[in-house]
Write the structure tokens for this entry.
Amino acid sequence: MWFIFALLSAVFAALTSILAKIGIEGVNSNLATAIRTVVVVVMAWGMVCLTHTQNGISEISKKSWIFLILSGLATGASWLCYYRALQLGEASKVVPVDKLSVVITLALAFLFLHEEFTKKSLLGCILIGAGTFVMVI
């Protein structure tokens, strides 16, 4: 089931890029990011209320709060940079560079989460990096 959700995530991320590139025309990138963020917040809290999981807030540990907040800050910084990049560049070039996050994530997962970095992972990282380079030049 994780694969279906991951695939749907990729489809929605692709739609996000195209819709954002069209919508950001003539709009300040920071303002566009703020509008997008409000929509995401409303949608996320709508899902929490729809699934009746809002009572779980009190059960979240201090460590989880800290890392969820840090993750939110990283997401915000990513979105601000992404929208500015989309405003300045072509989606067909911005998006592949943004997807280098896959390579960076694998390296960080190896360093901080002690996840296995296999020959297959290394080959994938090299191919993603090479593919990104080819798409951007």
Remarks:
- The chain has a mean pLDDT of 94.
- The CA atoms of residues 106 and 117 lie 8 Å apart.
- The chain is about 80% helix and 0% strand.
- Residues 2-89 form one domain.
